[in-house]
Every structure is written in structure tokens, then in C-alpha cells.
Design brief:
The complex is a heterodimer of chains A (113) and B (120). Chain A has 113 residues and is mainly β. In chain A, 0% of the residues lie in helices and 49% in strands. In chain A, the strands form two sheets. In chain A, strands 2, 4, 5, 6, 9, 10 and 11 form a seven-stranded mixed β-sheet that branches. Chain B has 120 residues and is an all-beta fold. Chain B starts with a strand and ends with a strand. Classes of the chains: A mainly beta (113), B mainly beta (120).
């Protein structure tokens, strides 16, 4: 199985400041078709996860442009340009290249300082 | 508007079989590329993918749980059913069903989740 490792696991951020979450995979996530299938999800407290980013950097409909994804191979990053109160919760990366199983990271909890 | 909703028991006893139903609307499970999957989340823990069924009937399972899981299309065109045998207290979790529109791009729509507690 591909192991997804996120850091940090806890991320206190001041409102209006940037935030960055790292995700590393135990194998390259580049698929034979040239795409890299790395997703990011956000789960607010008491809610279901919501996909923010797919294929490393493509934002889902309705996702604010302050969210951006980057990376390649085994190293990926989710950046929030300016953190807002609604951004609190847990962020998960998930790989869709080597399955089964699809695997998630252990989560990064973002809260406001 | 795409929606998914999970239903099933909230309590099961150890060794029993859990049956969960996902009822969805706003898309068809006969559309090429579309799938419905199940993901669980023990309290305070990360997400774990369980199983997925595709538009063409292909089934995928998490190898660590494969012997205990069965995913099927329901008798109604807009339902997917997951069964998990031999439940144990460590299986206590919120179970989500979710849609995928590509086998590689994860899950773009999620249900609200249903908490299943395993206790005697």
C-alpha cells in the first residue's frame, strides 16, 4: 500500500496569514498516462470531507482561489494564501494512482491562534 | 443537485453483520466512469477507504478488509449496499458513501455519514 505522510499534524495559524501543509507518498504518484492523482480534502468539525483539489493542483468548483496545490512525484503541498475562520478543520491528502487501496494521509488539523 | 445519504443501524453487536445503504440522486451509476464508494472514520481518527463499485459493476475492496466486505448495487437504481461481516468494537466508525466520477480522482461528493457503534 502507498503510505501518505502529512506534516505538520497540527497547524495553528493567525487569521489572514498563509498556511502550508505537506504530503509525501511512499511511491511516486505519477501514473502511466502522465497525470498525478493526488487529492486534497477539507473536513470541518462535525461535517463530511469536501474535496478541494484533484490532480495535484486543479481546484474543485466553488473552492476559493486562496487554496492552491502543487508538487510532483512523491512531494506535494497545499497552500492557503490567507487563512479565514471557515478554513479550520482537518485537511487530508489522498492518492488515487495506486489502488486498491486508495489511501489517505493521517490529517492535519488547522486551527486559529 | 447531487446528494448521497447513508442509512443503516446505529448499533450492532460483535460478530454481527453490518448492512449499510447509500441512496443517491442527481447522477446515474450507469454513466461511464462513475462509481460509489464507502469510506469510514473511527472517532478522532483518519479516513479509511473500504470499497467502491463502478458503473460497469466492477468492485474494488481494501485488501485489509476484503474478506469481510461486499459492495453491490441495490435493487433500486439509485442505491448501493455495503455489508461488513464479523463486526468488532474496533469497527466503530462514521461511515460515508461518496461518488467518484473518475477512478483516479477521489470522491467529489460525500454523504453526511452515519455513525455505527459496535458494542455488546
Amino acid at each position: 500500500d502507498v503510505v501518505m505522510t502529512q506534516s505538520p499534524l497540527s497547524l495553528p495559524v493567525t487569521l489572514g496569514q498563509p498556511a502550508s501543509i505537506s504530503c509525501r507518498s511512499s511511491q511516486s504518484l505519477e501514473y502511466s498516462d502522465g497525470n498525478t492523482y493526488l487529492n486534497w480534502f477539507h473536513q470541518r468539525p462535525g461535517q463530511s470531507p469536501r474535496r478541494l483539489i484533484y490532480k495535484v493542483s486543479k481546484r474543485d468548483s466553488g473552492v476559493p482561489d486562496r487554496f492552491s496545490g502543487s508538487g510532483s512525484g512523491t512531494d506535494f503541498t497545499l497552500k492557503i494564501a490567507r487563512v479565514e475562520a471557515e478554513d479550520v478543520g482537518v485537511y487530508y491528502c489522498m492518492q488515487g494512482t495506486h489502488w486498491p487501496p486508495y489511501t489517505f494521509g493521517q490529517g492535519t488539523k488547522l486551527d486559529i491562534k | 443537485q447531487i446528494t448521497l445519504k447513508e442509512s443503516g443501524p446505529t448499533l450492532v453487536k460483535p460478530t454481527q453483520t453490518l448492512t449499510l445503504t447509500c441512496t443517491f440522486s442527481g447522477f446515474s451509476l450507469t454513466t461511464s466512469g462513475v462509481g460509489v464508494g464507502w469510506i469510514r472514520q473511527p472517532p478522532g481518527k483518519p479516513l479509511e477507504w473500504l470499497a467502491l463499485i463502478y458503473w460497469n459493476g466492477d468492485e474494488l475492496y481494501n485488501p485489509s478488509l476484503k474478506n469481510r466486505l461486499t459492495i453491490t448495487k441495490g435493487t433500486s437504481k439509485n442505491q448501493v449496499v455495503l455489508t461488513m461481516t464479523n463486526m468488532d468494537p474496533v469497527d466503530t466508525a462514521t461511515h460515508y458513501c461518496a461518488r467518484t466520477s473518475s477512478v483516479y480522482d477521489g470522491f467529489d461528493y460525500w454523504g453526511q455519514g452515519t455513525l455505527v457503534t459496535v458494542t455488546s
